[in-house]
Amino acid sequence: MEITVTSYNQGWPLLFQSEQEQLDQLLKDVHPTIEHIGSTSIPGLLAKPIIDMMIGLKRPEEMELATEALVQAGYIYVESFNAIIPERRFFIALKDGVFREDYPNIITKDPDIHIPSHTHRFAHIHLTLMDSPFWTDHLAFRNYLRTNEEARHDYAALKEELSAKQWKNGNEYAKAKGAFIADIIQKAKSAESMTPHVS
Q1: pLDDT tens string 34-78
Q2: C-alpha span between 32 and 108 (Å, rounded)
Q3: Which end of the chain is more exposed for a tag (fewer CB within 10 A), N or C?
């Protein structure tokens, strides 16, 4: 498969905000914290035109409640990804006009067969706990790139290089970025540890 990246779109934050409002209402019983993450959350950066959103919950028992609510609302739950990242639940929101009945509500088998193509996806929803490494690492990565022009430039160059290749699936593409992302997260944490905190 090909991974398409496009120039930054000023409308991405507005698309996030619109979806955030719907999710806030849908999950009001668990009082989520919802963050815009990934490349569409970083002004000026090339990105796949899919909005990445992270829903943070405070208590483990809320994960099942939120998962059920998202499935009932029509988000596609890729349950087979739980084995890859156990601390996260992954959902896909489809674009308007995509025939929802073409896809199962819950993908439990080989996602390469059943998962929607990137061109059919509007958003990726990552559900996790706010004290998890998944939550803190994604925020650290986003915040570092928002404030570091050199890192943004290097990441854009990597994404352009990788988008010219063919990939088995999106996870294989993500894995190819893994070393760069891990390095940025480490730099972000080191910078945070050196920042004086006012009590």
Answers
A1: 999 999 999 999 999 999 999 999 999 999 999 999 999 999 999
A2: 25
A3: C
Count how many Cα atoms sit within 13 Å of the Cα of residue 113 in the half-sphere of its side chain.
Answer: 6
Burial tier of 87 (Cβ tally within 10 Å: 0-12, 13-18, 19+): middle
Task: Write down the domain spans for the chain.
Answer: 12-192
* Cα gap 114→125, rounded to integer Å: 17
The burial of 138, by beta-carbon neighbours within 10 Å (0-12 exposed, 13-18 middle, 19 or more buried), is given as buried
**Identity of residue 3:** I
The structure's pTM equals 0.91
In the numeric block, which tokens belong to residue 12? 């991405």
pLDDT at position 195 is: 63
Pick one of 3.20.170.30, 3.30.365.10, 3.30.460.10, 3.30.930.10 as the CATH number of 12-192. Answer: 3.30.460.10
Burial tier of 12 (Cβ tally within 10 Å: 0-12, 13-18, 19+): buried
Angle between helices 149-163 and 133-147 (to 10 degrees): 110
Q: What's the DSSP call for residue 59?
A: S
The pLDDT tens digits of the residues spanning 76-104 come to: 999 999 999 999 999 999 999 998 888 99
175: part of which helix (H) or strand (E)? helix 170-176
